[in-house]
Amino acid sequence: MKRKYPFTPILGWSVSRYDKFEGCKRQYWYDYYAKKFDRDVAPERIDSLKSLTSTHLEIGNIVHDVIATQLHILRRNIIPDDTNEILKYSYHLVDRALGSKNFLEVHYGQKDKIDVDDLKMRVGNCLKNFFSSPWYQWLLADGEHRRGDWVIEPNDFGEVRIKGMKAYCKVDFLFPMAEGNLCVLDWKTGKVDREKHRKQMTGYVVYAQDIFKVPAEQVRPVVVYLGSAYEELENSFAQSELDAFAEAIAIETNQMYEYCEDVNENIPKPKESFPKQVRKLCAYCNYQELCND
């Protein structure tokens, strides 16, 4: 029986949230609190800046969307005759994104415009790697396992509890294998970051333990890199490592709690308590113009 938690306002840890918190407290403020609590910047401006996308981000969005769509089709036991139609669909998504979204590189004058052919080529390369991957071929050939139990880009954000604290470990794709084992596949379209991605995989094991009540040794988490060269990263986890992960998440969560005036309602301290951190990555921040006002 899949567990589901009721809504609570208290903040929840995630890899992306803590990375933002650790990298720049002011960016963290703008991402998570400014729309509701910033008295200096209009909510509409916050929304506009937060919605800026980037070439790197949009490649990931489109590739994930196309793979999720294809997995939903496979779950209905419909096998595609030709992947070229799927690639054409991805190119349509590229055109739609360029016509409807604002790109950070253009907004901040880093580029005059986004190279549509380059974007389509990079999206197409990721998807071709996916279609030729051993996992996709196995999914096409395997009709024995419970496709109705597949978890594909869940809408519940992957909420779990780690040492009693709220956390989010949202999987891209989870499915049952033989003898009660669960496999979790996570698609990556950018560069390999083994340390960061191993941390994510640890979260997937905790997710399966908490939500599906599956022992750690029966969870197989795999990061699948779909960028320029296909690669996989799979590791097993001893219980001692999972315990250390839980302790680290408790520390990181409490660090974020310290920036709240009301922890239970997730009400932050004033913006001035969230200092700017000038760094090279400022050039890739959606909110850089606010720091320069």
Notes on the structure:
The protein is of the alpha+beta class and 293 residues long. It has a domain at 52-143. Helix content is 47%, strand content 13%. It has 12 helices and 9 strands. It has helices spanning 15-23, 25-32, 34-37, 43-50, 55-75, 84-100, 104-107, 116-131, 134-141, 194-212, 239-257, 288-292; strands spanning 151-152, 159-162, 165-168, 173-176, 182-188, 219-225, 231-234, 260-262, 267-268. The protein has a 5-stranded mixed β-sheet with strand order 1-4-5-6-7. A hairpin with a 5-residue loop joins strand 4 and strand 5. Helix 1 crosses helix 2, helix 5 (55-75) packs parallel to helix 8 and helix 6 runs antiparallel to helix 8. 27% of the residues are buried.
Q: Encode the helix/strand succession as letters.
A: HHHHHHHHHEEEEEHEEHEEH
- The computed structural class is alpha+beta
Largest sheet: 5 strands, mixed
Helicity, in percent?
40-55%
Number of distinct helices: 12
Question: TL;DR of this structure?
Answer:
This protein is of the alpha+beta class and 293 residues long. The protein is built from twelve helices and nine strands.
Question: Which descriptors apply to this entry?
Answer:
alpha+beta; five-stranded mixed β-sheet; two-stranded antiparallel sheet; 47% helix; 13% strand
Topology:
Blueprint: H1 15-23, H2 25-32, H3 34-37, H4 43-50, H5 55-75, H6 84-100, H7 104-107, H8 116-131, H9 134-141, E1 151-152, E2 159-162, E3 165-168, E4 173-176, E5 182-188, H10 194-212, E6 219-225, E7 231-234, H11 239-257, E8 260-262, E9 267-268, H12 288-292
Parallel strand pairs: 5-6
Antiparallel strand pairs: 1-4, 2-3, 4-5, 6-7, 8-9
Helix pairs in contact: 1-2, 5-6, 5-8, 6-8
